[in-house]
Amino acid sequence: MAIGWREPPRFRPAWLPAAICAFAALVFMTMTACRPVGPNYTRPGFTAPTAYKETGASDVLVPPPNLAGGGWQPASPSDGMIRGKWWEIYNDPELDRLEERIATSNPTLQQALETYLAAREQISVVRANLFPQISGSAGVTHFKNSTHKPLATPSSNTNYNDLTVGGQGSWEPDFWGRVRRSVEAAHANAQASAADMANVDLSLTAELANDYFQLRGLDAQTRLLTATVADLEHQLDLTQRRLAGGVATNEDVLQAETQLETVRAQLVDIGVARAQFEHAVATLAGYTPSEFGLPPSPLDLALPKFPVGVPSQLLERRPDIAAVERRVAAANAQIGIAVSAFYPTITLDGTGGFESTHGGTWIQGPSSLWSLGAQATELLFDAGQRHALTAQARDNYEAQAAAYRSTIFSAFGDVEDQLSSLRILENESGEETRAVDAAQRAYDLSNVRYKGGVTNYLEVLTAEATLLQNQRTAIDLTTRQFVSSVGLVRALGGGWDVTQLPK
Description:
- The protein is α+β, with helices and mostly antiparallel strands.
- It has a single domain (18-142, 159-500), classed as Outer membrane efflux proteins (OEP) (Up-down Bundle).
- The protein contains nine helices and six strands, in the order αβααββααβααββαα.
- It has helices at 18-33, 93-105, 107-127, 178-244, 250-284, 311-317, 319-340, 385-451, 457-491, and strands at residues 60-61, 133-144, 159-171, 306-307, 345-356, 368-377.
- The strands form two sheets. Strands 2-3-5-6 form a four-stranded antiparallel β-sheet, with no helix packed on it. The chain has a two-stranded parallel ribbon with strand order 1-4.
- α8 runs antiparallel to α9 (457-491).
- The radius of gyration is 39 Å and the shape is elongated.
- Mean pLDDT is 87; it is low at 1-17 and 67-75.
């Protein structure tokens, strides 16, 4: 009799038949077809004014007049507005250099960046709940049972191996949209965090520009006072020579000395404020204050023109408005999450693998095992907890919507404040320029009268003090105009708009 070798039967995954795959696909399609419970998000309504009230300053560029048939609407939030690195509008290379360091060296901005990155990772954490959780296991165990155990038989095997390998899977299909609403909330919160980061960046860059211009304004004051000290030293020398010639009196000399020392004290006092602003600039730009210095540079820049756009653009340009609007969207998603608790929880579980006592038969069809099951759970009584949580979610949404409208009102108030400041300061600066010119003429005339012996030296000192005060006021007004212009840029959102939010 011929003995032939017969190929053993090939393994077929009997524990995962095609019917299971079809069932899983059907469940997935059913889940994706289900609309998430809860309200879909709609941005809270707000009607922006057609124009700003305060646009009278010459350095403010207003948009074109309304078109026929409706209000003028730009193509994008950036049209007719400052874009990108807003500080470059001042054409100051030193300011540009300092501002560039904020993005790489400021720890406050770095903190905001890490906060955003953490919020972004939360999206992946929540989205993972849309998919099954699958785990695998393997085990090798040797058993030695007692031959004297109860009900033992002589033929029972008391010494054997248990070899297992398999996997387990569990899935809670998102029939009611709880997970999808959670993803919506996480995505909106991540966008809000990104807007917060942009708002921190805008605040830091605006604060640096503010401190920088005030420092340069003090440099202009220093230049003026230094020139005044030199003039007063000349006046004191002249008065002393006139005293020696019998023309002036000791009182004239004392008055000249008093005026000189007073201005010298003012010059020293400016150094205190300048050092503080220099330290503030160093801190914002990421320098160690003890190793940082800015050379004197009086504020001789020309104030640039600022495009303000139309009021409706402000809703798309301010990062703080964008942040609170995104939190309204997140609060809306939380309502759907709360509503989903009223629906049953459905869970699918499955296991599969191989088990044998011998390694040769471990991974074979007869050693396979599997199970598949489903479970539905519905909470029948919770003493009104779910109703309270849903009402709480709706109240939180309304609170966020109110915060959104409040932020918009504050934003429009900020813009109007800065526009009015620029207009009033421009008018005041014009008046002060004329006052300086008049004080200069009065001082020149007093000098001529004093040298001609027509008047005493007190008149000269009074005229010079008046001139100095008006000159310092003019410099202060120029500095305030630059500070207000920075405030206007900040109120308008800088060079940012909502298109920069992560998708």
